[in-house]
Structures are given as structure tokens and as C-alpha cells.
């Protein structure tokens, strides 16, 4: 437990990261599962490999966008389920160097994000729909799951697992220090030691002792004595867990909710269901208020650019973070109960009140009567006075509470108005 806590120290301080799903599926532009959903064979998918030429790929622009959004780290898909590798791998020809791109796109990503001072993570899919030794017919999600022609193919799964291990070794040897290894994903009996997970984690730790690993190799991270491959952090997807994540002894487990900006991970040209900057900020606050992180996804297009709408949202979130980031970085859950008007985050004796709902009258802080040394609007540092309105003295349930009056009927910031409280 302590080792995990040490390794995730920077991660729990950072709280906000960028997920990037990018690959051949950006060309059909119907989401990253297009091969599985449309049951496309290797041959049917091959034209995308032949024309992959991201002429506007500029990872420095991505890194600047992440930094401006207030994100502290990034995780990029080095290989997704379709088996295509953005890196130069000696174990397959199915990689970016053999497309019209003709270069190692991961190398450029690592350098760009490091130069901006951001931590660097690799996503790697345990699943591979391109590899001949990965189970196809009868598998639950393989594109060829129902194709009779694949029914009697003989595969050597151990050969695939060797390939997986060899590629992970490449990724963790050829690009300097890597901060996160983000595996995706175990399912049915394809879990744990099926991937030779203990051996894989031991290999990873020998190459990159400080790296943190997600929990998708399998195992149960919530056990008091989890498996060696159960990971350093829990990875809920498209949901903020109602009570955060704790182990069977009630001890906090580091966790990170991965969330899309629209309804797809990979680029989808017709998906306009974007979340508002307000939704993103409030979800981030909810994660931090439950001792978690948020990994917010972008899906660059076939030419290598982050969609304009995604950039617009990131810019707006970044503007809020610039003024209010102190209530996110290094913060966690507060010991105070969740208030009616929003949420709390806390860092030591600083409690941050995230006011989402203006309500009527002064803002009420249950249990804080006589305990607030100082109250300031975080965005601009302006003083807020703590005072008890005359009418409140008539109600017994307000006796332990403090009140702060905000002028006007509207909140200063409709997304999230943060009040910084220095507590005795």
C-alpha cells in the first residue's frame, strides 16, 4: 500500500490529465470501435493503413492545449484494439513508420509533452484484432467473431502474449522515463495471468521503477493484499463513482475517471454531443472532492488536429483553472458533509467551497461557525465577510453554521464560484 501511495504521489497532486485516442480509425471517423461494430476484416481495414498521412500532426500544439487547460499529464494510445502502432516497433510492420506518415509518432509526442513540463503516459491495448494469434471466432468483441471462415484457424496465443510483452518492453526502453502505463482491458477469461500479468508487471518495474499502472490487467485493487498486477490506481470509465474508491478496509485507493468530451473516444465526424465547459469543471470538482483524478479525452482527426470544438472547451476550462486551480491541485475530499449548494475540496486547513447554486440569501456553511479565519473569493482574492444574518438567530439548526453573503442574484462565475476558506 505504501509503495503504491508513494508512486502515485505526483498523480494525486496533479488531479487533471488529457487522454488522447488517435489512430487509423480517425479516417473512417466513426469512432475507435469501428472495426468491431462493422465487423471489418484486416483486408477491409487495410486502405486506412495505406492512406494514413496526418499532415497536420503537431504534438507541440496538443501539449500546449493540455497545459493551457490546466492538465498536468497526458496518456496517448500507442496501440488500440485494431493493433495499429503509432510507434516504430521491430515486432510488427503494422506501424506508423510503414504508412505514408513514415515516422515514429510516439517519439514526437513524448518529446513535445516533456518539453511543456507535463508527465507522459502510454495507453496500450491488451487486445489485438490484427494479430493472427489473437482469438477471433467466438470471441465476444473481435470483428471476425461470427465469421465461419475463422472458426477452425489454429492460433498460438502464447506467441501473441510474447508479442505483447516485447512491445511493452520496447515502449518502456526506447522513450526515456515514462510516468503512466495505461492498459486496456481485461474481459471474460482474458484477464490476469492469461496475459502473464505478474511477469509483465515485474518486467515493467525493472525497466521503469517509478511508473504507475492502471488496474485493467485484472486482479482486485480493492483487496487488502491485491495481486502484484492489480495496479496503482482504479480506472472508472464514463462515470464518477458515487462514493469515490476505497479498499475492503475503507482505505482510499488512488483513482482516475476517464471521460469523453462527446460520446466517442476516437474521432467521430458526426458526433456533436459535446459536454459544456461547466459540465467538465463540475465533474473535475466531483472527482477531486472524492479523492480522484479526471482524465479528459480528445480524439484528433485523420490529419492530426484536435477538433475545434474540443479545443474551445479546453480553453474555457483552462481559463477557470488559471483562476481556481488551487482548489484542484493537491486537493482531496473534505471532512465536511456535502453542502446543498455544491461541493467541497480540501488541502490541509484550506477548504474550498465550490458554489454551483446561488439559492436565496447568504451561503450557509454547516458546522463552521467560529471556525473560519479568512474567506476569499478564489478567482480574484477579494475579501468575503462571515456574518450571521439577524433572521438566522431564530433557527436552532443554524447555530453551528457560518454564513457568507454574496452580493447580487447571480453567482460571480456560473460554472463554479470558488470560496477559499482558511479554517482554524
From TrEMBL:
Keyword Ribonucleoprotein: no
EC numbers on record: 3.2.1.51
Similarity section: Belongs to the glycosyl hydrolase 29 family.
InterPro entries: FUC_metazoa-typ (IPR016286), GH (IPR017853), Glyco_hydro_29 (IPR000933), Glyco_hydro_29_N (IPR057739), Glyco_hydro_b (IPR013780)
Alphabetical list of Gene3D superfamilies matching this protein: Glycosidases, Golgi alpha-mannosidase II
SMART domains: Alpha_L_fucos (SM00812)
Name of protein: alpha-L-fucosidase
Top enzyme class: hydrolase
Amino acid at each position: 500500500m505504501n509503495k503504491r501511495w508513494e508512486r502515485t504521489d505526483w498523480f494525486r497532486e496533479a488531479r487533471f490529465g488529457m487522454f488522447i485516442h488517435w489512430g487509423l480509425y480517425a479516417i473512417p471517423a466513426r469512432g475507435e470501435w469501428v472495426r468491431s461494430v462493422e465487423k471489418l476484416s484486416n483486408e477491409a481495414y487495410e486502405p486506412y493503413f495505406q492512406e494514413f498521412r496526418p499532415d497536420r500532426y503537431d504534438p507541440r500544439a496538443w501539449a500546449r492545449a493540455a497545459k493551457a487547460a490546466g492538465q498536468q499529464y497526458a496518456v496517448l494510445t500507442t496501440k488500440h484494439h485494431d493493433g495499429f502502432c503509432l510507434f516504430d516497433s521491430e515486432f510488427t510492420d503494422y506501424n506508423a513508420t510503414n504508412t505514408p506518415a513514415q515516422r515514429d509518432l510516439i517519439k514526437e509526442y513524448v518529446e513535445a509533452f516533456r518539453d511543456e513540463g507535463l508527465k507522459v503516459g502510454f495507453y496500450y491495448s491488451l487486445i489485438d484484432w490484427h494479430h493472427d494469434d489473437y482469438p477471433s471466432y467466438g470471441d465476444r468483441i473481435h470483428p471476425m467473431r461470427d465469421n465461419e471462415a475463422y472458426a477452425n484457424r489454429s492460433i498460438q496465443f502464447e506467441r501473441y502474449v510474447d508479442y505483447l510483452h516485447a512491445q511493452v518492453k520496447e515502449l518502456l526502453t526506447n522513450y526515456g522515463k515514462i510516468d503512466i502505463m495505461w492498459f486496456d482491458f481485461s474481459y471474460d477469461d482474458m484477464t490476469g495471468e492469461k496475459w502473464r500479468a505478474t511477469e509483465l508487471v515485474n518486467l515493467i518495474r525493472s525497466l521503469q521503477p517509478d511508473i504507475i499502472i492502471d488496474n485493467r490487467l485484472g486482479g482486485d485493487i480493492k483487496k487488502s493484499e491485491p495481486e502484484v498486477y492489480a495496479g496503482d490506481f482504479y480506472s472508472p470509465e464514463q462515470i464518477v463513482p458515487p462514493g469515490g474508491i476505497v479498499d475492503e478496509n475503507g482505505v482510499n485507493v488512488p483513482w482516475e475517471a476517464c471521460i469523453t468530451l462527446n460520446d466517442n473516444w476516437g474521432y467521430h465526424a458526426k458526433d456533436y454531443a459535446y459536454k459544456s465547459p461547466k459540465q467538465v469543471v463540475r465533474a473535475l470538482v466531483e472527482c477531486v472532492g472524492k479523492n480522484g483524478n479526471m482524465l479528459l479525452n480528445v480524439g484528433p482527426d485523420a490529419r492530426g488536429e484536435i477538433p475545434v470544438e474540443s479545443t474551445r472547451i479546453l480553453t474555457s476550462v483552462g481559463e477557470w483553472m488559471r483562476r481556481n486551480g488551487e482548489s484542484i491541485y493537491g486537493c482531496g475530499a473534505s471532512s465536511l458533509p456535502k453542502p446543498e449548494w455544491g461541493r467541497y475540496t480540501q488541502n490541509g486547513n484550506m477548504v474550498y467551497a465550490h458554489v454551483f447554486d446561488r439559492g436565496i440569501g447568504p451561503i450557509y456553511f454547516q458546522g463552521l461557525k467560529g471556525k473560519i479565519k479568512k474567506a476569499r473569493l478564489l478567482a480574484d482574492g477579494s475579501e468575503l465577510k462571515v456574518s450571521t444574518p439577524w433572521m438566522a438567530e431564530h433557527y436552532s439548526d443554524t447555530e453551528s453554521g457560518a454564513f457568507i453573503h454574496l452580493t447580487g442574484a447571480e453567482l460571480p462565475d456560473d460554472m463554479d464560484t470558488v470560496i477559499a476558506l482558511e479554517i482554524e
